[in-house]
Amino acid sequence: MSNPNRPAFDLSGKVALVTGASKGIGKACALSLAACGAHVIAVARNPDDLGALAAEAAETGGEIETWATDVTAGDFTARIRALPQLDVLVNNVGTNKPMPITEVSEDTLDLMLNLNVRAAFLSAQAAAEVMLRKGSGSIVNITSQMGHIGAANRTVYCMTKHAIEGLTKAMAVELAPQGVRVNSVAPTFISTPLTAPMFENKAFYEEVISKIPMARVGNTQEVANAVTYLASDLASLTTGDSLKVDGGWTAQ
């Protein structure tokens, strides 16, 4: 059965690992990469969600292997390093707890730094080691428009996403001579099960829309399309860049 949403990218023979793959942006990325022919390793904590994801991909001929694990677990990066082949890493997992800076506890700070920065760095480091054996690969870090701007009540989130934008540039410069590309995708507010309750607040939704020149929030497939492009050989000269899928928010 053909997939009408399949982008015109051929990833046949490639192995792609996607963290936070069971829902939202991660799920869309896993399905898109699988639809383009990649063998996808989908990583998330909930095995039932992962099973549903693999079944959905199989309906259109996609191949998804599932790892039900926590990316902060001690054996996760060792498992990446043990892979015989890895061509694409989509470093997607992350979290956010919006609140005024004066209310941020040390536990909240540590949680977000550990997941958004430390786990992302260690995953990228392990993936790079595997890719360097072959002399090619593409790492795509999912950041945010908040990695390019500041925003009230999002100080820790902005800090972590600015950090990953810096990691992207530094890794890109270091690994480019060895054939590994590193880029980021920085979305605006995207409609997902996680953000849906936020958008029920009319004042919040209107404030968000007022800052997006295209006057709408994004959808997960639009982010996945950007990721799939950067993962593919069509982006063979693109590294150290941040592809903003933000409807023009950061252009103002």
TrEMBL record:
Highest taxon of source: Bacteria
One Pfam family from the record: adh_short_C2
InterPro entries to which the protein is assigned, alphabetical: NAD(P)-bd_dom_sf (IPR036291), Sc_DH/Rdtase_CS (IPR020904), SDR (IPR050259), SDR_fam (IPR002347)
Entry-linked PROSITE patterns: ADH_SHORT
CDD domains registered for this protein in UniProt: SDR_c
Coiled-coil regions listed: none
Listed Gene3D superfamilies: NAD(P)-binding Rossmann-like Domain
PANTHER family named among the record's database cross-references: 3-OXOACYL-(ACYL-CARRIER-PROTEIN) REDUCTASE, 3-OXOACYL-[ACYL-CARRIER-PROTEIN] REDUCTASE FABG
Family membership noted in the UniProt record: Belongs to the short-chain dehydrogenases/reductases (SDR) family.
Protein's recorded name: SDR family oxidoreductase
UniProt organism field: Microbulbifer salipaludis
